[in-house]
Amino acid sequence: MIDSIRATNAAEMSSIADMWLLCALAERDAAGAKNALIASAENPLNLGSNDNVRFNRPFFEGVIARMTKDEEKARSAFTAARSEQEKIVQAQSNYAPALCALGLIDAALGRKEEALGEGRRAVELLPPEKDALDGPATVKYLAMIAAWVGDKDLACEQLATAVRTPSGLTYGQLKLLPFWDQLRGDPRFEKLAEEAKQPVAVK
């Protein structure tokens, strides 16, 4: 479908750039991901859900660079992403979605304690019981942050909560997107991915 829109209605690509980017990342298609990022212009994007956690362009440049094993470029991009995101957090210190994004960027830079602190703070500010949309997202991002810094126990613990609440986290995302690669092969993760196939019971 994306290829069809590119061929027949290129002017609309900016409106589907986020979906194109995620599809390219799922296929580990670095060239496609770069083109999707260009099509997105400077618009912040999320990671395939309807929450308010948005990531700037340098963050995705870092993800793509790391996917292609260009660590120097990845670190440079994540450093630029952090500089931008830190300004947002400083302006809105209690805005949980912004803390989620900063936490994941810090995780990408190997700033383990800062990353986990930001992720935990986001969950404290906005737990699932407080906000049906962004609350479950904070738990999902804490799981991702923990995975990125190598704390698989915390990652799986938080992910178990995320897949059992309406967090927008799908089986396809867990199975295909590179954001969860650090947990692949862990039987706990594989079991939770299978569980994500089932519809979440809304209480």
Can you put this structure into words, describing what you see?
The chain has 203 residues and is mainly alpha-helical. The chain has a single domain, classed as Serine Threonine Protein Phosphatase 5, Tetratricopeptide repeat (Alpha Horseshoe). It contains eleven helices and no strands. The chain has helices at residues 2-8, 17-26, 30-39, 57-67, 71-91, 96-108, 112-125, 134-148, 152-163, 171-176, 187-195. The model has no long low-confidence stretch (mean pLDDT 91).
Strand content: under 5%
Q: What's the CATH H-level superfamily name? A: Tetratricopeptide repeat domain
Overall geometry comes to globular
What is the tally of beta strands? 0
Report, as a whole number of angstroms, the end-to-end distance.
Answer: 35 Å
CATH topology: Serine Threonine Protein Phosphatase 5, Tetratricopeptide repeat
Summarize the topology:
Layout: H1 2-8, H2 17-26, H3 30-39, H4 57-67, H5 71-91, H6 96-108, H7 112-125, H8 134-148, H9 152-163, H10 171-176, H11 187-195
Please tag this protein with its features:
203 residues; Serine Threonine Protein Phosphatase 5, Tetratricopeptide repeat; 11 helices; 0% strand
Short description:
This protein is mainly alpha-helical and 203 residues long. It has helices at residues 2-8, 17-26, 30-39, 57-67, 71-91, 96-108, 112-125, 134-148, 152-163, 171-176, 187-195. The protein is built from eleven helices and no strands.
